[in-house]
Amino acid sequence: MSANVSTDAASFFLEIQGNLTKIVWAHAVNSQVELDKALKSADIMMLEADVVLGRLNGTNNTEIPIMAHPPANESTLSLDEFLRTVQNNTKKGIKLDFKSIEAFNASKPILDKFRNDLKIPVFLNADILPGPVDATAKPVDAKAFLAQGKAYPDWTLSVGWTTRYGNKDNVTEGRYTGDQIQKMIDELKEQKVTQPITYPVRAGLAAQDSDVIKTLMEKSSGMKNVTLTVWSSEGDKVDAEKLSTLIKDIGVTKVFVDVPQELMKSLRLSGASSVGVASITLATTIFASVFLPTIL
To answer: DSSP readout, 130-165?
Structure first.
């Protein structure tokens, strides 16, 4: 990718003035109709879409990467056509949510074909570790996803945990654990990941234990351009006050917020400071490295 192309969201979307919570997301852009609608919207900035192996509607062809959310395995839109369309739009970024390592593997030749033409922020997302609350969904293979994701150093790896929470599962209590976040840190270090990282965390779970989320960010302070992506499903039980405090503590320059509009309004982030614990931790790290060279 050419050196003059910024794939960093804060630099790409200059109008947000570094406040990542101002980025507006479109969900499940998994059909040609939804893609056209999102591209025409002046408000939408990032397009989130799901990638599975399946078939285009009306065909009996071999399975290919298509835009669909399980259990669906048919779509009007292939990954190839999705990328072909968005490469001509230089005002919106994309987040590709891979539902299996097989889907990611099959997508790599397509990603390779378009990588030099995608002059936009690109997130490669997968739930790579089991998470709360006793989640039963099968994670995408962590080592394989991270090892192969490193082939795209200018793109952000969005790596999270499977979850079991909300109305669908009738679960309203739970939290991320210290062991779960440490496992993520260990996987990233083992694979020597050096590109930008964002951790997608479910809002209702993150708000129930803000300390563990802050610890995740603090333990990631030595990595390159690490952020959170706070997300929520419709109907999730979320303590908006606690979540708002968590986001403000970490800092709006470090947190993407991808939640339903009603919850977004209740967070009252417009006046939030851009300096949070992540920035303070980084400053402390810099001080230690400069003035206290004997301390690791």
So the answer is: --TTT--SPPP-HHHHHHHHTT-TTSEEEEEE----
